[in-house]
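Design request, tokens follow.
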């Protein structure tokens, strides 16, 4: 059995069809079929069962796929370590972030980091907490900004940002005149919030339901600047973490920001990576840089 055969087989399983796997692998469907057939003959087992709707794995197929995933990670780690050996001061790090993290915060960090380590590239991928965690588990990302609580049995991590939630309303809104706003005062408001999959989405629903009402959600999105724009048009209220406040104030929109109380909800984020996974030179350098930045 060759690594190429194992790779082709794994991709068929990942894509759920021979034709889609052929597209991803830039080869023909007959080539994929021949590779799987040769693999089954070599192992003397049936790996896949074709039905009218989908492909199903046999017990032998499931076993081979599990080992194939392990082999993929081993080969990937080998090339990462080899690259570090050949380019000790170069490389790149892939980090997953939330759209709610302010661009001003990230741009300052990148500018400072690039000045210190010009040979290292940093690539950010924006998505929800759930999707970023899946990507981290698969090895598609090196690091992820993750909301607390973080599973210590699965991930290594360190604190990154901490703050409270704030409510944003139009300056003409009655709540804009208050120094602080209670969660219970939001019962008749139109909510503009992050979509399902974002930790803050679940927090908002939890607090509203704890007080006995279902929030009237008129818009769900992954773009915090779009949410603020709707608030500035007096379409509803939104709730955001503290990290965006400076950027919001600089936009000079008709928006008022107030603390949310009873309860005052604290949110915390960490930088996390999977335990027992190889960390490249670039990734370790980025981690140490962020830790040092936190201390300053």
């Amino acid at each position: 059995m060759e690594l190429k055969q194992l790779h082709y087989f794994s991709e068929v399983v990942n894509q759920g069809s021979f034709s889609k796997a052929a597209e991803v692998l830039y080869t023909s469907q007959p080539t994929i079929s021949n590779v799987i057939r040769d693999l089954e003959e070599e192992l003397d087992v049936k790996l896949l069962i074709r039905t009218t709707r989908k492909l199903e794995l046999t017990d032998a197929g499931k076993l081979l796929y599990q080992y194939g995933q392990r082999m993929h990670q081993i080969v990937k780690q080998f090339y990462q370590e080899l690259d570090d050996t050949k380019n000790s001061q170069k490389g790149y790090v892939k980090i997953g972030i939330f759209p709610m993290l302010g661009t001003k915060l990230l741009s300052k960090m990148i500018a400072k980091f690039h000045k210190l380590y010009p040979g290292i590239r940093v690539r950010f991928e924006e998505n929800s907490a759930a999707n970023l965690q899946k990507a981290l588990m698969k090895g598609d990302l090196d690091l992820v900004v993750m909301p607390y609580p973080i599973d210590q049995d699965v991930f290594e991590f360190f604190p990154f940002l901490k703050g409270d939630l704030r409510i944003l309303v139009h300056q003409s809104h009655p709540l804009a005149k208050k120094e602080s706003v209670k969660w219970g005062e939001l019962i008749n408001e139109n909510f503009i919030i992050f979509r399902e999959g974002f930790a803050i989405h679940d927090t908002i629903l939890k607090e509203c339901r704890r007080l006995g009402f279902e929030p009237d959600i008129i818009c769900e999105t992954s773009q915090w600047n779009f949410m603020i724009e709707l608030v500035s048009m007096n379409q509803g209220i939104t709730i955001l973490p503290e990290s965006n406040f400076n950027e919001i104030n600089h936009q000079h929109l008709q928006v008022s920001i107030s603390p949310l109380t009873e309860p005052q909800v604290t949110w915390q984020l960490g930088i996390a990576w999977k335990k027992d996974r190889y960390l490249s030179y670039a990734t370790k350098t980025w981690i140490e840089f962020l830790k040092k930045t936190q201390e300053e």
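Comment from the thread starter after seeing the answer: thanks! The first helix runs from residue 3 to 15.
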